[in-house]
Amino acid sequence: MMPPAPLPDPTSRRSLLLFAAGAILGLGIAGYGLFSARGTTTHHVPPEDVALVNQRPILRSDFIAQTEAETGTPFARTSAAERGHVLDEMIREEIFVQRGLELDFPGTDPDTRTALVAAVEQQAAADATTWQPDDAELQQYFSAHQEDYATNGVMVFHDLLLQEARASDNDARATMLAAAAALRAGASVPAVARSYGLSEKTQPGTRPEQFYFAARAMLGGALFAQAQALAPGDVTAPVEAEDGLHIVQLVENHRPVPREFAQVRAQVLADSRRALATRLQAANERYLRDQAEILIAGTP
Amino acid sequence: MRWLWLGVGVVLLGLGVAAQAAHRGALRAALLRAEPDSIAMDATLLDFAKAEARPVWQQHCAACHGATLRGDAGLGVPDLTRPERLYGTNRVADLERTILYGIRSGHPKAWNRAEMPAFARPTPYRRYAVASLAPGEIGDLVAFLRAGNGASADPAAAARGRALFGAKGQCFDCHAVDARGDNAIGAPDLLRGAWLYGRGTVADLTDSISDGRGGVCPAWVAVLPPSTIRALAVFVHDAARTAS
User: Fold this and answer.
1) What is the model's pTM?
2) Pairwise CB contact (< 8 Å): A64 & B36
3) ipTM of the complex
4) A141, A296, B45, B103: which has the fewest Cβ within 10 Å?
């Protein structure tokens, strides 16, 4: 005897129908929302804003700062008319900025483009300001750049010049060698200058002691290198420069001295943040270039 | 019956949480809509702002400024319990601006008008031409600053330093002719006997003049909600007001 055929379950058909109806309703709502969307709009100004212009907020704190800057008085003492005037100006600016974007001024106006480039560069480096390295990280940076934190080298010297003389002129060279010998023997600089017709080349008002970089700028690379290698009291060989033959007597030479980490902690922090900012900016540029589709003509 | 009471309890708890959230939302809105200078006079808003700010301070600000707001003179982090401010004043509106946009933070609205040149370098300043100083000139300026703050200094060197301050050093350009500073550009008062970096020793002042300074504070505008930033400004304002 054949078993009776199972009766159709009315609840399973109903659930199928309800499921289909729900799916159709959901798709309908989604389609309507998708094709008739007007963006998220609000008619309520959030408490942190003073106004919305085409849904773009004007921050209340910006408004307060602008009002105080324009009136020169604390916000609490400004009048309703003054506040209204400032707000009107800020709304005007916002409208014009929005119009400027519609007109694609960032694409055409050089000043806007320059400002945008600078702003993006700054923004890329912004994370460096929140970076708070611990002492171990700072120590590591300090160790890797220790020479940057040495004291400046300082030099005191006399630079004597035989004007318009050339190294190829044997008489001039002999004069300078004799003057150098007299200085080494202990004669005073003014006496040697008088005796040999030399002038001390020091700019008016300059101090006798100079940082290495300033001494190098005054003497030129060759003379500075010779002077730096001398012992105090010793004199360089004559060196020709544009204005004549020079000899330099070294009086004092304080070479750069490494400093302890504790002395330069603030500088190390600033420098390591700057280095991070540079790395972040470079990474940002690499990323933007990677993401960009750049087509270059065969012969740019 | 037991399930009924449990349901009632859950509903009441939910209502309580919702009421609390609504109350806090209303206080946040009131904090933002209040005139900044008036918040210190409103005990409810003041207490609410301080309670809102305290955990955020510990999370985001204390790493530099310290849990007690006293800063770190070794790193040039100011003592915020003092009423003087490097930028602007101790008013809530000024503090809020600094917290929003920062100092040399990279944000276009940050305080970023100037920094201290490094006078012992070939190019001391990147914004415009400033002459380097010789070691003796830096020593004279240090003597002038120490003398002006009641510390021991050679009077002749201090006199030369005063002349440099108003001429070749161009110090007056930021710190004002009377060395009292300019909080519109973050140039500190050099005669008030308190120092942002160090303690005013010869070495501290020499380092500042030689190597330059330019501290940073992040911009929090994109990180923290506006009500939290306002609360932090109130918190810092109140800390200095209470301490003074």
Assistant:
1) 0.82
2) yes
3) 0.85
4) A296
